[in-house]
Amino acid sequence: MKIRQPVSGYRFSMDTVILARLAELRPHDRVLDLGTGCGVIALILAGRQPDITVFGVEIQKSQVEIAVQNVRENLLEDRVIICHQDIKTLSPDQTSGPVDLVVCNPPHTPAACGRINPESPIAISRHEINITIDGIIQAARRMLCPAGRLFMVFPAKRMAELMEHMRQNGIEPKKMTVVYTRAAGSAKRILVAGVKGGRPGITITEPLVIHGPDGAYTETARRILTP
Q1: Structural domain count, the chain
Q2: pLDDT tens sequence across 122-175
């Protein structure tokens, strides 16, 4: 797989790859990647499951142009469709109907928190400038079919906020994996799966630890991060 991304500016992170590798796919799924950036999640998902269709939605034109090129160079134009679109105005008409799965690595920081990067592409990708987490969840609810699934990566410290917005929008959290940089430290990320209209009850999986005591990747992390 060939992935182009900007030499400078926003570049995809380990969060992106973990999300794409651990999202639970089903045969013939119609998948929506909200905030697709250069298209890396859409490409990995399409590579994992050969009979799915993936729609990647991105508001930044410069990222859309790179994503389209990545799709073309990986010969996936028949299964990966990139849309230049504001997530807030996205409707099922633009994906030929509701989708089965929404995946998203959204901006992780509220607009009022922390230093905002002066480079607009980085700022938009990291801070909730164009859209908030509630806007993301509303879009997921709007785009998912009944019993459709949502899979997201988000900061562990904002877990309660994410769960609240999911439930307010009728998406029940069903599975969560807590991600640690090292076992001895505090959790940095969570991976959360939810079901539209699902019944209450959540499964907490075995934690995902990225680095061992020696600083090397753990065996589990190596399996996830190795193509």
Answers
A1: 1
A2: 545 554 556 899 999 999 999 999 999 999 999 999 999 999 999 999 999 999
For residue 89, being part of any structural domain is answered with: yes
132 burial class (0-12, 13-18, 19+ CB within 10 angstroms)? middle
Q: How many residues does the chain have?
A: 227
Q: Of 153, 140, 194, 154, nearest to 172 (Cα)?
A: 194
Look up residue 104 and give its two tokens: 């998203």
Q: Is 57 helix (H, G, I), strand (E, B) or coil?
A: strand
- pTM for this model (two decimals): 0.90
| Residues 118, 123, 127: CA angle, nearest 5 degrees | 135
3-class DSSP assignment, residue 142: helix
Q: Which domain holds residue 69?
A: 14-225
Asked whether the beta carbons of 196 and 144 are under 8 A apart, the reply is yes
- Write the single-letter amino acid at 121: P
Domain with residue 184: its CATH number is 3.40.50.150
Tokens of 216: 């090397």
